[in-house]
Write a structure and sequence with these properties.
- By secondary structure, the protein is mainly β.
- It contains four helices and 39 strands.
- Helix content is 5%, strand content 36%.
- The radius of gyration is 26 Å and the shape is globular.
């Protein structure tokens, strides 16, 4: 049941919510930063967290949280070569276990007798990246000093610290690139946020090469970094799969990993190649050996006569590679496409392409709305950063809609929404700009594009952080929302809540697009619904990290539309009154029809 349609049609959604059991857990505040409360870090006595000096936390499938923060207290300094104020920690909650600390031994003591340290910038001795595998393994990365370590040459490293077992040094500055004649990786091999590390501690990255057999024609490479022997996936100048006289330069952005499955982009060079057809995309899924080129700019799209991949790069959202090899991407369309339908969200699986949603498509709750602000509008574009296809095949996205003639919606009329395409193809509008916010009387949603930090889980739950406002009271704030197909839209937290810090919070932060791992799931919202956030009161300088488990609602008696405890004549009348519309849609197909009638008749009588 969709919230906006329930509001539009006189309260059906409220009836549905009354008949849904929510299994969302209560918030657990894990730690507080106020400069006074003990940080409770194992092995570090008397430390307190420095306010507002945490990076976004990550969480695994068991509710274990990891984050980097700064500490203060007796014996702790934050400047120079002796700085020991940065810690990367992990646990299900305090006491925290130290994964890495500056001026302490590097994880696993490899290289031997080295410590994490950086004189030039003590705050970056451990980089602020947040990379966690689904099984709780964490990447720690930064600068070091020690025997055989030379500043600016081999003084950076990245380690994988598993949930249990021995930490592993994965890469060090100036390592030899595998598959080359002594070509060297760069001096700085520290990692950035959003790197997709899998349960084995592997990740993909491109590097600029030097030395050995390096020349201009082969001075970059895509490498699978892992413990033991790294693997060269593609080097600049390698032959393009399936093309004669054409080579590839692997792209510097968009390396995606899901277990052993890979996805990356490249630029073609050679015979018949121009700027109109030089963008290409590769995967090892379905390749007999090595990789295959699954799409190329300018090519015809198999299965869609007359359509081509138009000039311009594909866009990939948070987790574009699924465990079954399905690739999700956004592409400009050429050929027979017009300005009214020349963009699409698509999937590819072993050569088969599918359109999930296309510019110009009708959107339930928008195109068919009776509200003049929405009626007749159609889909325009999705967000690239706030869109994700889950392991269960659900696609959640921020969307922008337009007038049916292709013109942009003029201000101040609302033009944004949160949408979901279910695995069965049904499109659901979760909420629209200007809709009322559940649980916040008088508040409505502001723009829902570009700022929601949308997260989605394999269990069917999405979570997002919306800007909201109360025009009558002249107030603004944030609302942390959850949605699933049965439970609908609900409030998890809001500006002004006091349960996180003991004071009124004005910050609720999701990790969003950078919270992804190399197992096809989220590192801010796990596939089984573990959610972690930062909450803060910037006025009082008090901050907290909190988690909860968000799970789908369970329908108790969804056909009891009047909430009288039984399914009877009045419920049948309500369903027939909505026949052919979008509500009361009992099976979330998008239309009230015979399937909904069957559900109602099958539930006839007292609710069990």
């Amino acid at each position: 049941m969709r919230l906006n349609q329930g509001l539009l049609l006189g309260g059906f959604i409220l009836s549905a919510v009354n008949n849904v059991s929510f299994a969302d857990s209560a918030w657990q505040v894990l730690t507080t930063a106020d400069g006074l409360t003990p940080a409770n870090i194992g092995g570090i006595d008397g430390a307190v967290w420095v306010p507002n000096q945490w990076n976004n936390p990550t969480i695994d499938a068991n509710g274990v949280v990891s984050f980097r923060g700064q500490i203060a207290g007796a014996g702790i300094t934050n400047t120079g070569a002796t700085a020991n104020h940065l810690v990367l920690v992990r646990a299900a909650g305090a006491p925290w276990t130290v994964v890495a600390r500056n001026n302490s031994a590097v994880p696993g003591n490899v290289p031997a007798d080295s410590i994490i340290s950086r004189t030039a910038s003590a705050n970056n001795s451990i980089v602020s990246a947040n990379n966690m595998a689904a099984n709780g393994g964490v990447l720690a990365s930064g600068y070091m000093t020690g025997p055989g370590i030379t500043v600016g040459t081999n003084d950076t490293g990245t380690w994988f610290v598993p949930a249990s077992g021995t930490p592993m040094l994965l890469i060090q500055g100036r390592d030899v690139c595998p598959g080359t004649a002594s070509a060297l990786l760069p001096a700085n091999v520290s990692v950035s946020s959003g790197l997709r590390v899998n349960d084995a501690g592997e990740y993909l990255s491109t590097f600029t090469l030097s030395g050995g057999d390096t020349v201009t024609a082969n001075n970059s490479a895509l490498v699978l970094i892992r413990s033991g022997a790294d693997q060269l996936i593609m080097r600049k100048g390698d032959p393009a799969p399936g093309l004669s006289g054409v080579t590839v330069t692997p792209g510097s952005f968009g390396q995606y990993l899901n277990g052993a499955r890979m996805l990356f982009s490249g630029t073609l060079v050679g015979t018949g190649v121009s700027t109109a057809n030089d963008a290409a995309y590769f995967t090892n899924v379905g390749a007999a050996s090595g990789v295959r080129m699954w799409a190329r700019e300018g090519d015809a799209i198999p299965g869609f006569e007359g359509l081509t991949f138009a000039t311009g790069s594909f866009s990939f959202s948070q987790r574009p590679l699924s465990a079954d090899g399905t690739i999700t991407f956004i592409t400009p369309l050429g050929g027979s496409a017009t300005s009214l339908n020349n963009t699409a969200v698509m999937t590819e699986n072993n050569g088969a392409f599918t359109i999930l949603i296309r510019k110009g498509d009708a959107i339930p709750g928008i195109t068919d709305s009776t509200d003049p602000n929405f009626s007749g509008k159609v889909f325009s574009t999705p967000s690239t950063s706030n869109a994700v296809r889950t392991s269960s095949g659900m696609y959640a996205f921020e969307g922008i809609f337009m007038n049916a003639d292709g013109t942009a919606i003029s201000s101040p009329a609302p033009a944004t929404f949160i949408g979901v395409r279910k695995a069965n193809g049904a499109i659901i509008t979760v909420c629209r700009q200007t809709d009322p916010v559940p649980g916040m009387s008088g508040f409505t949603f502001d723009s829902l594009s570009g700022s929601t930090s949308l997260c989605a889980a394999g269990n069917g739950v999405i979570v997002f952080n919306a800007n909201v406002s109360n025009a009558g009271a002249g107030t603004i704030g944030n609302a942390l929302m959850a949605w699933d197909a049965v439970g609908g839209l609900r409030l998890l937290a809001k500006s002004g809540d006091t349960n996180f810090t003991g004071t009124s919070v004005n910050q609720l932060t999701l990790i969003g697009a950078t919270g992804n791992n190399g197992n096809g799931s989220g590192a801010g919202l796990s596939d089984n619904g573990w959610l972690v956030i930062r909450a803060g009161d910037s006025a009082a300088q008090i901050y907290a990290i909190a988690k909860m488990q968000v799970t789908p609602g369970v329908a108790q008696c969804i056909a009891d539309l009047d909430s009288d405890g039984a399914v009877g004549g009045s419920d049948l009348g309500a369903l027939l009154g909505g026949w052919g519309s979008a509500s009361p849609d009992l099976n979330n197909s998008g239309t009230v029809d015979g399937a909904d009638l069957s559900i109602l008749v099958g539930a006839w009588g007292p609710c069990q």
